[in-house]
Amino acid sequence: MVATAAGQLFRDKDPSAVDRWVAPTYTQHSSLAVDGPEGLRDLVAALPAGFRYEPARSISDGDLVALHGVYHGFGPMPLVAFDIFRVQDGKLAEHWDALTPVVEPTASGRSQTDGPTEVTEADRTEANRALVTEFAQKVLVGADYSVLTNYISTETYHQHNPEAADGLDGFGAAAATWAQQGKNLVYRTVHRVIAEGEFVLLQSEGEFGGPVAYYDLFRVADGRIVEHWDVIAPIPADLPHGNGLF
């Protein structure tokens, strides 16, 4: 349902899709639109002729669906995005997002969205959710990097953050560079954990040289994290609504 609705809204650029797919009480958390269905209608109506969305992957978890892809036409350069929709009674009821510019080339040689897309281990959803949730609390929020290898593979760690190379060494080198730039990775709160099969998405709040929203997507294999995609987006001082970013 979310794929159909998003396609009509952002592929077809059809404002009338709001009437078919969006709840009257639609709650907006994006910094790009005002609250309610009319805010979304105005956003879609204003999309330029060259606008398009390039999907990469989706994750469905109960009433939440997360989309990962690239928007072309929101600004002068393509934007990598995570969108989260909450569905209620067959309608889009709530939306969160984070966007960051596409960077080429990247430190790993991988793009910010390439890699596996299909869920193949649906029976591992809860085990993988538990692993990544514990990793988030101990390592990301707790900053206990001594237990990092309890969660991340020492053999395979494919990195899609544009400034970090593959492997734990690549991440360590990037983190050291960021620290020299005054951008320490600080995670304060994990707001949502969305899991399906081998994919687990964290939506978090913290600091990275200033207040940011972290969207971290992990792929798990054999009980260890083996791949990572992310968007780190500054939290704006003002939003076009009173719902907050989270």
The coarse overall form would be globular
Approximate helicity band:
10-25%
Compute the separation of the termini in Å: 23 Å
Give the strand tally.
10
Assembly state (oligomeric): single chain
- The strand order across the widest sheet is 1-5-4-3-2
Work out the radius of gyration.
18 Å
Largest sheet: 5 strands, mixed
**What is the SS-derived class?**
alpha+beta
Helix and strand pattern: HHEHEEEEHEHEEEE
Strand content: 35-45%
Average pLDDT reading: 97
Which residue ranges are poorly predicted, with pLDDT under 50 across at least 5 consecutive positions? none
Q: Count the DSSP helices.
A: 5
Record the SSE blueprint:
Blueprint: H1 2-11, H2 17-21, E1 22-28, H3 36-45, E2 52-61, E3 64-72, E4 79-88, E5 91-101, H4 125-141, E6 158-159, H5 167-180, E7 186-196, E8 199-207, E9 211-221, E10 224-234
Parallel strand pairs: 1-5, 6-10
Antiparallel strand pairs: 2-3, 3-4, 4-5, 7-8, 8-9, 9-10
Task: Walk me through the structure.
With 246 residues, the chain is an alpha+beta fold. The protein is built from five helices and ten strands. The strands form two sheets. It has a five-stranded mixed β-sheet with strand order 1-5-4-3-2. Strands 6-10-9-8-7 form a five-stranded mixed β-sheet, with helices on one face. Strand 8 and strand 9 form a beta hairpin. The longest helix has 17 residues. It is globular.
